[in-house]
Design brief:
The complex is a heterodimer.
Chain A: E1 6-17, E2 20-31, E3 35-39, H1 46-54, E4 62-71, E5 74-75, H2 81-86, E6 89-92, H3 104-110, H4 120-130, H5 132-136, H6 147-159, E7 165-169, H7 177-194, E8 197-202, H8 205-211, E9 214-219, E10 222-228, H9 229-234, H10 236-243, H11 254-267
Parallel strand pairs in A: 3-8, 3-9, 6-7, 7-8
Antiparallel strand pairs in A: 1-2, 1-4, 4-5, 9-10
Helix pairs in contact in A: 3-6
Chain B: H1 13-17, H2 23-45, E1 47-48, E2 51-52, H3 63-85, H4 93-110, H5 115-134, H6 143-167, E3 173-174, E4 179-180, E5 183-184, H7 188-209, H8 213-223, H9 225-230, H10 235-261, E6 263-264, H11 271-284, H12 291-311, H13 321-326, H14 328-346, H15 351-364
Antiparallel strand pairs in B: 1-2, 3-6, 4-5
Classes of the chains: A alpha/beta, B mainly alpha.
Chain lengths: 268, 370
């Protein structure tokens, strides 16, 4: 908890999968206690960035080729994933990856593997308070939960490590808008209460910009744009590209869908 | 507590963590204890409370079968720890039995060390070999890992054979009756007590292990390697730990097995032996606590039981009487095979699945289970 005032810094990160470059020099910063969004189209390199931070890249056949990652001022690039977790970095993976055969409580307790501070029981109770459905069904198998409940479980599991930084990869993936909203509300609560920093990777740019303070936009493995979330929300170019034109509206119509097709052409 | 008497309502964490949580469990425990105490008496004296019981009424089962079953239970539990809970497939099971027998031959028969020390030595030797064979598991999985462990099997059997022929006889390595302090374990009844205690301790130990961080790490690695890694689990270390732990136990069981038989050669450690153990945990239910126990009991007892029943069928019985008498061993195999297919077809979860359904039916009564 000493040294840098930034929770996470990534400098000139380059990574490749078996020689095929995926990141071409990404630099970003997450100040302590802030929520930062990482936006971009499919294949832009968002998930690869997360994998590089968590040390999971080798498991996916990739490797960091250049650059440096620090957490709380300590260099973590090149560490193995279990070492990264003990530095206070928790990960809510894309697709949730709940342990299907374990009960909900066992899933949560698995999160304590990377924990280095006491008080796991209190954390468990606070997670149950936040997501009562998890407590109600704590003995049933994780694989039997609905998508939204699995996402709650994945978030709870990450919190069990008592992290200083949470990496959230595609939280809204495959969830109904209402469920997504309630999950982001819970995340806002978590931020307020524990002051944990968050790096949010999202396809749903509007949702992410509403939740975060700052955002980086990635394309082709590079950061092409960055700024305060409130400014990006009003930026006409960003609106055209990622927000469907009418950032103020929370519902989407068929007209939005048509614009979406136009955007796709624009990108291609 | 609005519906007292129905189902089980837990109101405190202490209640939930108790070992004997329900009256049903106490009943089961009492029945199990009575069974365990009466079993050797019934099998040795052929009577229960003065009522004589014939050999065929006992289905031809004697105390030696029971002891071998206890050994099989321990072997199955430790294989299940590796295969069922950590998700690593290893054909090295017989090899680890052989390592245990080898260590027991060297430390016990040759160096004449005390029995507990021999067991410990066998375990340590097994753990070291387990670590070595665990190394490929860091890179290989599934069928490839299976092939790597198959190689280990042949290497160990070869070394065992060289040792056996070089120091003893082609017939096998002889073992003395084990001594624990003043106690000499030289008959089936004493072996029964020793093996029973060992099996219960192992079962409780594994059960407890799976409720710890380390135990959950095993299951997490099995369920999803990447998710486990992102939770902060050191996946390579968990794999090696599982291999070392499992082979420690298997080798101790192997030493016990060798001592129990009194003489063992390399011919006992075949691939059939390995397949038998896989059959036990699959029939019983992989990745469950009770599964290997049920599987081992069925697999070790069933052939004897079927053979005893088959003997009582007179040859004059139409259709199958003659076949039963002429091809006894063959018929036993066919019946076992059919039974296995039936179990796997209707209950892929194995015998443990039946047990869970029965348990659920009792505890949830009068509500329907599922």
């Amino acid at each position: 908890m000493t040294g840098s005032r930034d929770s996470l810094t990534v400098q000139g990160l380059e990574a490749a999968y078996r020689g095929a470059p995926a990141l071409r020099g990404i630099s970003l910063t997450v100040p302590r206690g802030a929520a930062v969004a990482l936006l971009g189209a499919n294949g832009a390199g968002k998930t690869t960035t997360i994998r590089a931070i968590t040390g999971l890249l080798p498991l996916h056949g990739g490797a960091i080729t250049a650059g440096q990652i620090t957490v709380d001022g300590e260099v973590i690039s090149g560490l193995q994933s279990h070492q990264v977790v003990t530095r206070g970095v928790a990960h809510v993976p894309e697709g949730r990856l709940v342990f299907a055969g374990m009960s909900i409580e066992e899933n949560l307790l698995t999160g304590t593997v990377g924990r280095r501070s006491p008080g796991a029981d209190a954390t468990l109770e606070s997670i149950y308070r936040m997501f009562p459905v998890l407590e109600k069904r704590k003995h049933s198998a994780g694989g039997l939960l609905s998508g939204g409940e699995q996402q709650m479980l994945a978030i709870g599991r990450a919190l069990m490590a008592d992290p200083t930084l949470i990496l959230l990869d595609e939280v809204s993936l495959g969830l109904a808008p209402m469920v997504t909203r309630s999950i982001f509300q819970s995340l806002a609560e978590i931020r307020e209460r524990s002051g944990v920093s968050m790096l949010v990777v999202e396809q749903n740019a509007k949702l992410a910009l509403d939740f975060c303070d700052y955002a980086f936009i990635v394309e082709n493995g590079q950061v092409v744009h960055e700024g305060r979330a409130s400014e990006l929300r009003d930026d006409p170019q960003i609106q055209e590209l990622y927000l469907g034109g009418d950032a103020g509206e929370s519902t989407r119509s068929f007209a939005d869908a048509r614009r979406f097709r136009r955007r796709r052409r624009w990108l291609a | 507590m609005s519906r007292p008497g129905f189902g089980r309502i837990v109101t405190s964490y202490r209640q939930e963590r108790r070992l004997l949580r329900t009256p049903g469990r106490i009943v089961v425990l009492v029945i199990a204890l009575a069974f365990v105490f009466l079993l050797p008496m019934v099998l040795l004296q052929h009577s229960l409370f003065g009522i004589p019981i014939s050999d065929s009424q006992l289905l031809g089962i004697g105390l030696p079968q029971v002891n071998l079953t206890l050994i099989a239970i321990m072997g199955a539990i430790s294989l299940n720890l590796l295969v069922g809970y950590t998700g690593l497939i290893s054909l090295g099971h017989a090899a680890f039995f052989a390592v245990g027998a080898f260590a027991a031959g060297f430390l016990g028969t040759q160096l004449q060390l005390p029995f507990p020390l021999v067991l410990l030595g066998a375990g340590v030797a097994g753990a070291i070999v387990g670590l070595l064979i665990g190394l490929p598991s860091l890179r290989l999985q599934g069928l490839y890992l299976m092939l790597a462990t198959l190689a280990l099997h042949f290497v160990v059997i070869f070394v065992f054979l060289q040792y056996q022929i070089g120091n003893f006889s082609p017939a096998g390595i002889p073992y003395l009756s084990p001594e624990i302090g003043p106690l000499i374990i030289d008959d089936d009844q004493k072996w029964y007590v020793l093996l029973l205690i060992a099996a219960v301790l192992l079962l409780l130990g594994v059960r407890n292990l799976l409720r710890t961080r380390q135990g959950r790490s095993f299951i997490a690695v099995r369920d999803h390697e990447i998710a486990a890694a992102s939770m902060g689990i050191n996946v390579p270390r968990v794999r090696l730990t599982s291999f070392a732990l499992s082979s420690f136990v298997v080798s101790v069981v192997g030493a016990l097995y060798a001592y129990y038989l009194g003489n063992i050669g390399e011919g006992s450690f075949t691939l059939n032996f390995v397949i038998g153990y896989f059959a036990m945990i699959i029939i019983g239910g992989m990745g469950s606590m009770a599964g290997p126990v049920f599987g081992a009991i069925l697999w070790s007892m069933l052939p004897q039981v079927i053979q005893t029943i088959a003997k009582q069928v007179p040859a004059s019985t139409p259709f199958f009487g003659q076949v039963l008498n002429a091809y006894q061993g063959f018929v036993v195999l066919v019946i076992v095979a059919i039974l296995l297919l039936v179990i796997l077809r209707f209950r892929p979860g194995g015998l443990n699945d039946y047990w869970q359904t029965l348990k659920g039916g009792v505890t949830k009564w009068p509500y329907r289970n599922k």
